[in-house]
Specification:
Elements: E1 2-4, E2 11-17, E3 22-27, E4 32-35, E5 38-41, E6 46-53, E7 56-61, E8 64-69, E9 75-80, E10 88-95, E11 101-107, E12 115-121, E13 124-132, E14 135-140, E15 146-151, E16 156-162, E17 168-177, E18 184-190, E19 196-201, E20 205-209, E21 215-220, E22 226-232, E23 238-243, E24 258-262
Antiparallel strand pairs: 1-24, 2-3, 3-4, 4-5, 6-7, 7-8, 8-9, 10-11, 11-12, 12-13, 14-15, 15-16, 16-17, 18-19, 19-20, 20-21, 22-23, 23-24
């Protein structure tokens, strides 16, 4: 089901706000935060958000993290995000179970290894991983002890263990290797059972993998460049997915649109960001 007919140049960052019971997503290249039937436009690229309270998002832009009041539309600066780097912008991001917010950066033109992955936690922004070309698939196991991420160019979904405060420990390990495929690992989310749902750019699908990387199933969508999934709805059984028209000379009618489909899977409620 198409939930919004507006085609996104680069749909990303879908999030079901558990207190508002409302779905949001971004169109990075058009500098917009969307909900069904409405959007907010910003002065620079925006890509991902975590919810702080009923009316407030923490949003990542090309140069900063800031809070945004959905009712008053007030923006409040939180901290810089590679604000002195004219090459990069924010990309994929998600809140973790401990209340931190992970956000990846990448080059505006996907410059080689220009990006990094950061975590904002209780007032501190710390760089976790660098030399990443296209940051994606940031998501977390329900137990809060594992984080996942990828560099889409490399094509390998990685896992890293987390300590009690949510900081990475030890060496990241390989979970899913899709480096030989003709599609890209894009955004991902983890369901309540710990299975990973990954949008696959160029494959028109979201694929489900067990925590050990075993392929379980896939859900097909009528858009080639599926970009990021999220679970939502009152029972958290609705699978949402954004898509993109970026780079297409002749997009199909449903490319770039935003979708929802019922599943038998229960997702995790999106975690609150603790500022």
């Amino acid at each position: 089901m198409i939930i919004d007919d507006t085609p996104c140049a680069l749909g990303e960052g879908p999030i079901w706000h558990p207190e508002r019971q409302q779905f949001f997503w971004f169109d990075i290249l058009n500098k917009r935060l969307h909900t069904v039937g409405k959007y907010w436009e910003f002065d620079e690229y925006v890509s991902a958000a975590g919810w702080v309270d009923k009316d407030t998002f923490l949003i990542a832009s090309a140069t900063q993290l800031f809070t945004f009041d959905l009712e008053t539309e007030e923006e409040t600066y939180v901290c810089g995000l590679e604000s002195d780097n004219e090459v990069t912008r924010s990309n994929d991001g998600r809140a973790d179970p401990q209340g931190g917010f992970w956000i990846g950066t990448m080059g505006f033109n996907a410059e080689d290894k220009a990006g990094a992955i950061y975590r904002y936690y209780r007032g501190e922004l710390r760089r976790l991983f660098d030399n990443v070309t296209i940051t994606n698939a940031i998501c977390f196991a329900p137990c809060g002890a594992i984080a996942y991420y990828t560099d889409t160019i490399v094509g390998k979904l990685m896992a890293t263990d987390l300590d009690a405060d949510g900081w990475p420990t030890g060496k990241p390990r390989l979970i899913v290797d899709l480096s030989d495929e003709d599609f890209g690992i894009d955004g991902a989310v983890v369901d309540a059972d710990g299975n990973i749902w990954n949008a696959q750019w160029g494959a028109s699908r979201v694929a489900q993998y067990a925590p050990d990387g075993t392929f379980l199933q896939s859900v097909t969508f009528p858009a080639s460049q599926t970009s990021c999934p999220a679970f939502g709805g009152t029972d958290l059984k609705t699978l949402y997915c954004t898509s993109a028209t970026q780079g297409m000379t002749a997009p199909a009618i449903d490319d770039g649109k935003t979708f929802a489909t019922p599943t038998t899977t229960i997702g995790q409620a999106e975690h609150r960001v603790i500022l």
